[in-house]
Design brief:
By secondary structure, this protein is an alpha/beta fold. The chain has 3 domains: 44 residues, 434 Repressor (Amino-terminal Domain); 124 residues, Response regulator (Rossmann fold), CATH 3.40.50; 131 residues, Response regulator (Rossmann fold). The chain has 12 helices and 12 strands. Helix 2 crosses helix 3, helix 5 packs across helix 12 and helix 7 runs parallel beside helix 8. It is elongated and about 75 Å long. The chain starts with 5 loop residues before the first helix and ends in a 7-residue tail after the last strand.
Length: 325
């Protein structure tokens, strides 16, 4: 069966091919009624857009590739959903990949790239950006190269908020639970935690109280159970909420009360952190604001191919009942 074309849709809808193209790309140049009519005809004809042909005509596929380290956990998915919603309203489509960088990003089909929580060192990412020669926005890395932008969390400020809360707690033996190796956010939070610990306690033993939870609540549950059984720590600063909830789980198994016997803080303000009992004190980054800034920076790069720009988003402290004060 022959594929339906824009001309076929235009003939049935009694409009121009340009109008069909605008409508299928959600352009405001076409009325909502006409857009709905054209999309209905396209669906009935099982129309499939030819992205390669479109790119040759316009030098713009409007297809953006998002690359993440994993689909697990809530944070990546929440942010990508916000970005996708904004891009769709602007006539773009988002294609997400997990794991290694796919070869498709090097083709003309892909218009640009967004990278969220991708595990690689700065040198590798700079080389990738220079080779790609397309707009690229980093969401958890600060990369100093042309045709790229970075929209990142102010991790230092977030850790300062959490550390200041724990300093006021009656639980004083603090354990620091870090994320994955090669995680930009984990590295930034580690450096900030070390700075504030050293200044506050005038000690140089920070590394002795740091353990990798790999951003995994199961790993952190096992760590927490060991620490709590041995009464090794009574305060936990976790570099994300999922790991904090692993400590909650361990405390529950041992009949230890969070917010009284021990204090726990997290980072990210996931939905679960607000519904556990007691609620988790954490740091919130407005995901909608982050998504809007990512899209804005992408469009600026696309329009001007500007040099590197770093935008830092300020986090907000969310106080709940998980700290004994």
């Amino acid at each position: 069966m022959e594929k339906a074309s824009l001309k076929d849709i235009a003939r049935i809808a009694n409009v121009s091919v340009a109008t069909v193209s605008y409508a299928l790309n959600n352009s405001s140049q076409v009325s909502e009624v006409t857009r709905a009519k054209i999309k209905k005809i396209a669906n009935e004809l099982n129309y499939i857009p030819n992205l390669s042909a479109q790119n040759l005509r316009t030098n713009n596929s409007n297809l953006i590739c998002a690359i993440v380290n994993t689909y697990q956990g809530n944070f990546n998915g929440d942010v990508l959903q916000e970005i996708q919603d904004i891009l769709e309203r602007k006539g773009f489509q988002l294609l997400a990949f997990s794991g290694s960088i796919p070869d498709i990003v090097k083709t003309d089909i892909i218009d640009g790239v967004l990278m969220l929580n991708y595990r690689a060192d700065s040198t590798e990412l700079q080389q990738f950006t220079n080779t790609l020669n397309k707009p690229i926005v980093f969401m958890t890395n600060e990369i100093n190269t042309a045709n790229s932008a970075s929209v990142v969390i102010d991790n230092r400020l977030g850790i300062k908020y959490l550390f200041d809360v724990l300093k006021k707690s009656k639980n004083e033996r603090i354990c620091f639970i870090t994320g994955d190796d090669n995680s930009f956010n984990s590295e930034q939070r580690y450096n900030a935690a070390k700075e504030f610990y050293t200044k506050s306690f005038k000690k140089n033993d920070f590394s002795q109280h740091v353990y990798s939870g790999q951003y995994d609540p199961i790993v952190t549950y096992q760590l927490g159970k060991r620490f709590l059984e041995n009464d090794q720590y009574d305060a936990f600063l976790c570099f994300n909420d999922d790991m904090a909830l692993g400590i909650y789980h361990a405390a529950s198994d041992l009949n230890i009360k969070v917010g009284k016997d021990i204090s726990i803080v997290g980072f990210d303000d996931s939905y679960v952190s607000s519904v556990v009992s007691p609620g988790l004190t954490t740091v919130q980054v407005d995901k909608k604001e982050w998504a809007e800034e990512v899209v804005n920076q992408y469009l600026e790069l696309k329009a001007s191919k500007s040099t590197n720009k770093v935008v830092k988003l300020s986090p907000k402290l969310i106080l709940r009942g998980s700290v004994n004060q």
